[in-house]
Amino acid sequence: MTDLALDLFSTEQLPSTVNILLYGPAGAGKSTAAASAPGPVMFINLEGPNALHFARKSARDADTEVLEVRVDWGEDPRAYFRESFVAAKERGVNTIVIDTLGKLRDGIAFNIGGESPSLPQWGQVGKAMTTILRELRDSDMNTVLICHERVLDSDTGDRIVEPLVGGKTTTEAMAEVDVIAYCGAVRDENGTRYLAQLVESKGRRAKDRSGALGDVVELNLTDVIASYLASFIDDSLPFDEELDGCYCELFGEFH
User: Fold this and answer.
1) Would 12 be classed as within a structural domain?
2) Which of 13, 36, 77, 97 has the most CB atoms less than 10 A away?
3) What is the secondary structure of 24-92 as a DSSP string?
């Protein structure tokens, strides 16, 4: 026997926050969706000074406070993340966003190994990313990880679409989150709607630990997070059948 004190949970601890990974092509509404999460929302922005203009406009219309920490290329993202994480807790931030996760990894790699990191240096990068992902996972804030998409061919010749992160961090990031959403814009006679696919189909990686959100959701993360959390209390909550039906065909014939 050891002296380790174990915490044995005899009753279920319901989630109070949700960790979400959004990915997809450019113009799919990922950053704007992140700004629709419960506020205040803090962005750690590695995508340049113009990346959040439309997201900020959308957040203003919804009366959501957006805080931005801008990380320019060449600066060490690890220091910015540590300071941002502390500041987010002090400011009562409800949602913290990494935009994008792939650029975060690239920035860390550059600061560790320059333009051509060695294999051991890539190992250091992986450890740094693991630390960040687990701190976000275990925090008392919602987390949104934004990624571009990466299209691959499998051994069987089928197409695979996954988040663009890099190395083993891609798999680790997908494992650590509660929801993986493939984002896309759907245009019809009513205009443009930004939707997210939550079930794996057409080679697209997706995930929903609640099993209650349906195949497709509107990219309003305040609503998505509320529905996700409520599903553990009332599993009879319906998802939007209109989106699950009519928009499945427009968005890529999920079934």
Assistant:
1) no
2) 97
3) ESTTSSHHHHHHTSSSSEEEEE-S-TTTTHHHHHHHHHTT--EEEEE--TTS-HHHHHHHHHHHHHHTT
